[in-house]
TrEMBL record:
<keyword id="KW-0460">Magnesium</keyword>
<dbReference type="Pfam" id="PF24947">
    <property type="entry name" value="PGM1_C_vert_fung"/>
</dbReference>
<keyword id="KW-0597">Phosphoprotein</keyword>
<keyword id="KW-0313">Glucose metabolism</keyword>
<protein>
    <recommendedName>
        <fullName>phosphoglucomutase (alpha-D-glucose-1,6-bisphosphate-dependent)</fullName>
        <ecNumber>5.4.2.2</ecNumber>
    </recommendedName>
</protein>
<dbReference type="InterPro" id="IPR036900">
    <property type="entry name" value="A-D-PHexomutase_C_sf"/>
</dbReference>
<keyword id="KW-0479">Metal-binding</keyword>
<dbReference type="Pfam" id="PF02878">
    <property type="entry name" value="PGM_PMM_I"/>
</dbReference>
<dbReference type="GO" id="GO:0004614">
    <property type="term" value="F:phosphoglucomutase activity"/>
</dbReference>
<dbReference type="InterPro" id="IPR005846">
    <property type="entry name" value="A-D-PHexomutase_a/b/a-III"/>
</dbReference>
<feature type="domain" description="Alpha-D-phosphohexomutase alpha/beta/alpha">
    <location>
        <begin position="185"/>
        <end position="287"/>
    </location>
</feature>
<dbReference type="Pfam" id="PF02880">
    <property type="entry name" value="PGM_PMM_III"/>
</dbReference>
<keyword id="KW-0413">Isomerase</keyword>
<dbReference type="GO" id="GO:0000287">
    <property type="term" value="F:magnesium ion binding"/>
</dbReference>
<dbReference type="InterPro" id="IPR016055">
    <property type="entry name" value="A-D-PHexomutase_a/b/a-I/II/III"/>
</dbReference>
<dbReference type="Pfam" id="PF02879">
    <property type="entry name" value="PGM_PMM_II"/>
</dbReference>
<dbReference type="InterPro" id="IPR016066">
    <property type="entry name" value="A-D-PHexomutase_CS"/>
</dbReference>
Length: 544
């Protein structure tokens, strides 16, 4: 078979964001667009000859075409073996697990995660390194620099690979292995959790669960694990077949976009437990009967109960959370006597802490939780962790969370997103806030006095690398916080995220609606940041 060296022109817009390169499908369909970025990855990660690469995606529109292109480019670049998910399907956590298990040099995940799909939706490419985690900033920077000068790429002239049939075939010198998308991942889950006990919980007849895969990649994993392996009735998993356009929905597991599941869990005959995942299966939302668990609380509850779960029975080395995530887990860490690390937004910042054995559990407020079993966040893992705790404690989700608040106090928390605002005003708003920072300390806003204000800068405790300007923080003397940053995953205009948190130790005040409990802080945030004046928006688009 013939290897073509194709001339191309470099592009200026291939800078990876919080989690890979995300663009409209139409951008990726431009001639050479995908090829330029893939070749930039191959050129940046060192010698690929004879190495193993893992490849798969969340099944969204353009997944299959992109996989065929990448297979032929990987073969032309001398990769020894490519493990590709059957039908082109691999969730982000499964990819991370497979890279680690087979000591691959890395993996390519085709996904724009929680962004909508379809011909008019988004597509994305993430590169993960040999530890199974997202490429750290020095690697994404190298890829970006390469994309700005690249003048050719290599591709094999060959027929498309059959992605439906399991097994090995050859693409030039390269072995292509079509693998079961679920098998390795399921095996890892069985090594961490008490499947017998969870199976007993799910089959004894008085504990019902509903899982919503939102027509995205977690469907096949959820069918195999909850229904086939753990005995939950068929029908437990809703929307479990990945669709190219996610059924027209927005595959983001939160109260707004997973409203069908929310309606089920808040109905009169609601099941005991509900969960949803995002496009690529790394996010999770946990619901009890008529009860929503905030992701920040979920992380804290998992940390506090980790010893009940076989894979974590020895205890935790430490925990880590992204800066905007609520401080609930810090209180658990303090009680256990372990470190709680605070990192910038994005899973790539947890990799070093996990590799160095400094942290066991990690989490983000954006519905992401995971541990050192892989180097990505893991939606299904979080659900199994919860089910394992529920099977041991024999209490409801609500009881467990309420007891948690009684012990540690409650961190009221909410995130307000202003989506698709204009880039100019969004940047102005952040610039203005930054310039205000030195003047805020000591100022009084209603009942709140500013204790500190800064633009978060992170020094990685393992390799010493510094990441600046990771979000404006305004902290008050009673422990409340307001955090403001711009999203790094959107593809249209800018998205402003405002995170608001307060701490309530008094159990008699644990029953408020967070929007009510946080009302004055929300107003203070809107005033300090002049959100309405600068963006024209009176209300956020999404509140979680
Ligand atoms: C968002 C979340 C962040 C998460 C990232 C990727 O980033 O806030 O916590 O790590 O998405 O998640 P941003 O920059 O838009 O705030 V996913 O599920 O896309 O891999
Ligand atoms: Co995701």
């Amino acid at each position: 078979m013939k290897i073509h060296k194709v001339s191309t022109t470099p592009l200026s817009d291939q800078k990876p964001g919080t989690s890979g390169l995300r663009k409209a499908v139409k951008a990726f369909q431009q001639p050479h667009y995908l090829e330029n970025f893939i070749q930039s990855i191959f050129d940046s990660v060192g010698d690929l000859r004879g190495q193993t690469l893992v490849l798969g995606g969340d099944g969204r529109y353009y997944n299959r075409q992109a996989i065929q292109i990448i297979l032929k480019m990987a073969a032309a670049n001398g990769i020894g073996r490519i493990k590709v998910g059957q039908h082109g399907i691999l969730s982000t956590p499964a990819t991370s697990a497979i890279i680690r298990k087979y000591q691959a040099i890395g993996g390519i995940i085709l996904s724009a995660s929680h962004n909508p799909g379809g011909p008019n939706g988004d597509f994305g490419v993430k590169y993960n390194i040999s530890n199974g985690g997202p490429a750290p900033e020095k690697v994404t920077e190298a890829i970006y620099h390469r994309s700005k000068v690249i003048d050719s790429y290599q591709i094999l002239e060959a027929p498309d690979v059959d992605l439906e049939t399991l097994g090995e075939s050859h693409l030039g010198e390269t072995v292509v292995e079509v693998i079961d998308s679920v098998h390795d991942y399921q095996e890892l889950m069985e090594s961490l959790f008490d499947f017998d006990r969870i199976r007993e919980l799910l089959t004894r007849g008085n504990f019902q669960i509903t899982i919503d895969a939102l027509h995205a990649v977690a469907g096949p994993y959820a069918h195999a694990i909850f229904e086939q392996r753990l005995g939950a009735p068929v029908g437990t998993v809703r929307n479990g077949t990945p669709l190219e356009d996610f059924g027209g929905g927005h595959p983001d597991p939160n109260l707004v976009y997973a409203h069908e599941l929310v309606d089920i869990l808040y109905a009169e005959d609601a099941p005991d437990f509900g969960a949803a995942f995002d496009g690529d299966g790394d996010r999770n939302m946990i619901l009890g009967r008529k009860f929503f668990v905030t992701p920040s609380d979920s992380l804290a509850v998992l940390a506090a109960n980790a010893k009940l779960v076989p894979g974590y029975s020895e205890g935790l080395a430490g925990v880590a959370r992204s800066m905007p995530t609520s401080q609930a887990v810090d209180r658990v860490a303090a009680q256990i006597g372990i470190e709680s690390y605070e990192t910038p937004t994005g899973w790539k910042f947890f990799g070093n802490l996990l590799d160095a054995g400094k942290a066991t559990l990690c989490g983000e407020e954006s519905f992401g939780t995971s541990s050192n079993h892989i180097r990505e966040k893991d939606g299904l893992w979080a659900v199994l962790f919860w089910l394992n705790i529920l099977a041991v404690r024999q209490q409801s989700v609500e009881q467990i969370v309420r007891e948690h608040w009684q012990t540690y106090g409650r961190n009221y928390y909410s995130r307000h997103d202003y989506e698709e605002i204009q880039t100019g005003p969004a940047n102005t708003l952040i610039e203005r806030l930054r310039s205000l920072l030195p003047t805020l300390k000591g100022k009084q806003f209603g009942n709140y006095q500013v204790e500190y204000s800064d633009d978060f800068s992170y020094t990685d405790p393992v390799d010493g690398s510094v990441s600046d300007q990771q979000g404006v923080r305004i902290g008050f003397t009673d422990g409340s916080r307001i955090v403001v940053r711009l999203s790094g995953t959107g593809t249209q205009g800018a998205t402003l995220r405002v995170y608001i948190e307060s701490y309530e130790p008094d159990p008699s005040k644990h029953d408020l609606d967070p929007q009510e409990a946080l009302a004055s802080l929300i107003t203070i945030a809107q005033e300090i940041a002049q959100i309405c004046e600068l963006t024209g928006r009176e209300q956020p688009t999404v509140i979680t």
